[in-house]
Amino acid sequence: MTTPLTPSVEGRRALVVGGSTGIGRGIADAWADAGLDVLVLSRSAPRGPGAERLDWLATDLTDAARVDEVLTAATAGPLHAVCYSAVHYGDRRALFDEVTEAEWRRQVDVNLHGLWLTLSRTLPVLRRTEDPGLFVGVSSEVVYNAGPGRSGYAASKAACAVLLDSVAQEELLGRADEGEGQEERVRVVQVLPAEMVDTPGIRRRRPEDFDYSSYMRPASFAPLARELATTAGAGLHGAHLVVDGDGTWQPVGDRTPVSQSRKVPA
Ligand SMILES: NC(=O)c1ccc[n+]([C@@H]2O[C@H](COP(=O)([O-])OP(=O)(O)OC[C@H]3O[C@@H](n4cnc5c(N)ncnc54)[C@H](OP(=O)(O)O)[C@@H]3O)[C@@H](O)[C@H]2O)c1
Fold it and tell me: What are the respective helix, strand and coil percentages of the chain, to the nearest 5?
């Protein structure tokens, strides 16, 4: 059993879209450890140790009517923290000419449009919290390192990063150029791993005997997730933070994430 670290966040409500597995699950678990009540949206239920602490609503982000229904339920009460981690990688790396329009649309739907829908429904609720609400987007090295064989993933993730940067600027109140102090209505923070992370989504694209010993684990995101939840992201609004395997983090300008782009065999 874990002791909540900061009593003041006890009972605060959080939403993690794509929190059943992988990095989203690492963040959902860390927020539950810190004492938040966490609701996960995903197609499959969270499983394994700690899953019983997470509330869950079955959601397919490509089903607009269901997304509307669950986001209405999720935003019915106060909400303090939201994380968007859902992703559709596709079955394998494929050159642009080999990607069907249906696959492209699925990446846009899950990776980007799901983020837009989540922002549009949760920002008004996050703005009503006493402290600034917190919105965490899980980003990727591909935003900085586009490469062959993953154009849909790269384009959708880059669009997510710019969407969140734009929203972050809109959430700043007051005009610095007129000498007013600026404050955030909702704090927006992007987080990404420094290297590959061993997650179910990545495992689906690797051979069974693949060696994951050099890969990071989703739990590396726990220290930053706890920090963000307990401070509501104070001092980190608009940041892109690169998380290392040891759980430390640095701004992307100080720690270039390793490119996972590879040449595609001719
Ligand atoms: N793993 C890495 O090495 C790595 C590197 C850089 C960035 N990232 C970023 O980290 C984030 C998480 O990736 P991950 O590797 O942790 O992925 P993951 O283990 O595959 O988790 C993806 C999450 O998205 C949910 N999801 C997928 N399709 C969905 C749909 N149609 N409707 C609702 N939920 C859906 C999954 O739940 P269900 O399957 O239950 O629906 C799961 O909760 C992504 O934003 C990715 O870009 C990962």
Answer: 40, 15, 45
Q: Would you kindly state where each structural domain of the chain is located, as residue ranges?
A: 7-251
Residue found under tokens 């492209």: 104
Model pLDDT, residue 203: 95
Average pLDDT over the chain, rounded to an integer = 93
Distance, in Å, from the CA atom of 215 to the CA atom of 199, rounded to the nearest integer, reads: 9
User: Is the C-beta atom of 259 inside 6 A of ligand 1?
Assistant: no
User: How far apart (Å, rounded) are the C-alpha atoms in residues 64 and 77?
Assistant: 21
Q: pLDDT digits over 11-55, tens only?
A: 899 999 999 999 999 999 999 999 999 999 999 999 999 999 999
Q: Is 27 in the pocket of ligand 1 (CB under 6 A)?
A: no
Tell how far CA 232 is from the center of its chain.
Answer: 15
> To the nearest whole percent, how much of the chain has pLDDT over 70?
93
Write down the pLDDT at residue 175.
58
Which of 23, 38, 66, 115 is the pocket-test mutation for ligand 1 (most atoms within 8 Å of CB)?
23
Place of tokens 């959902």: 28
**The pLDDT of residue 107:** 97
CA 49/CA 25 separation, integer angstroms: 11
CB 134 within 8 A of CB 87: no
The answer to whether residues 172 and 237 touch, using CB atoms and an 8 Å cutoff, is yes
Q: Which atom of ligand 1 is nearest to the CA of 84?
A: 45
What's the 23 CA to ligand 1 centre distance in angstroms? 7
At the topology level, CATH places domain 7-251 in Rossmann fold (3.40.50)
Q: Is the overall model pTM greater than 0.85, yes or no?
A: yes
